[in-house]
Amino acid sequence: MASGVATVWLPVKDMKRAVDFYGGTLGLEVKRDSDEWSELDANGLMIGLNARESSGADGSGGALLTFQPDGGLDEEVSRLKDAGVSFVGDISDHPWGRIASFKDSEGNDLQLYEPPSE
């Protein structure tokens, strides 16, 4: 039986660039940093960056991480755009919330999620 998610790992081609993106641009706490494996704390969820298996680090599939911004979605999209992040399309509105899709420094798919307002 699975009791929860222990780790989400993403393949990366350039570890320094990936750590700069996740630690610097997104603001996650870097717990471990090496040329082959780095770990970041995303509010208790460990994200592992794996340079040993970089073949999937080209945006052609793999894990998708969704982050919920501390503030509003529009403000976080604006902040990330100012930091050089490229978004895929516009913010999309759904009955279950709003999402904004973007790529990390390695071409992996990421999203920001905002639940519906009550």
From TrEMBL:
Signal sequence region = none
Q: Which residues form the VOC domain?
A: 4-115
Q: Tell me the superkingdom of the source.
A: Bacteria
Q: Which Pfam families match?
A: Glyoxalase
Segments spanning the bilayer are: none
Question: What InterPro entries does UniProt report for this protein, alphabetically?
Answer: Anthracycline_SecMetBiosynth, Glyas_Bleomycin-R_OHBP_Dase, Glyas_Fos-R_dOase_dom, VOC_core
- UniProt-listed PANTHER family: GLYOXALASE-RELATED
Q: What is this protein called?
A: Glyoxalase-like domain protein
